[in-house]
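User: For my dataset I need records formatted as: sequence, then structure tokens, nothing else. Please produce one.
Assistant:
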Amino acid sequence: MPVIADPSTVPLTPVVTILLGADGSVSVNGEVLPADGDPRVAGLAEVRIKAAFLGRPVRVIAKEPDGSAWALIVDVDGAVTPLAEPHPRPEAEIPAPAPAPAAAPAPVPAPARPPAQPAADWDAPLPAEHAARWDRIRAAEQRGDLRSAAALVAELVGVLTQSHGPDHPLTLNAQLTEAYFALLGRDHVRAALLYAHTARRMAAAGAPHEAVQKAARNAYASWKEVADPSAALEVGRHVLAMWHEAAGEDRRPIAWTERRLRAISARIGDGDAARTP
């Protein structure tokens, strides 16, 4: 797989942290991943999903059990580019807009924590301060510029993640919109990964069961459109992991997914179809 020829073209944020434990555990941005196989592979696979969400490479710091740290760039296709130097400080990328960060702390003290109760409203409209951005998204969609619309939604997801957190209903609903644009653009791999990851986060965050099921069904439907067998096998494992967390009392989707994974595996000779990421 190719590596990044010019690392300076990769935005300075976000920087994802992979922490490898001496006991074989691995966490990504503080979230411990299931112990299954090589922890380094599991960590990089999780970062690849984050890159898929953004539609671009992301910067990574991989910390070994002995304390050593490695600066990496992980692309959407999983290609890893090791860097000889640490990642530049984000301040170097935005020296002038010091006022912009000052605007962020204002909402954080009040809205970030107290509105954790209103956050239970999964049907809440987008706050008025994001109306202009949403209008640009709609305008891009209406003129058929799905790439620009998707990029604007990804930007909105980043803004909402910073202001409300990754598991806030506003953030997760925006991620569903991002998956929707990936589906419209017939990027079925990205759509399936986005829907699957978001469904898992929604289930963990206590979203209404029907909303979780809708996202999960969209992930499954998007996965079925992935034509390349190798890609379908890899994406299907994420869909299977999703169903284990989002299926609820109806476990039939797990059986359907496992059956389809076995069929794909038989086509390409992979005997470990039902392994989840």
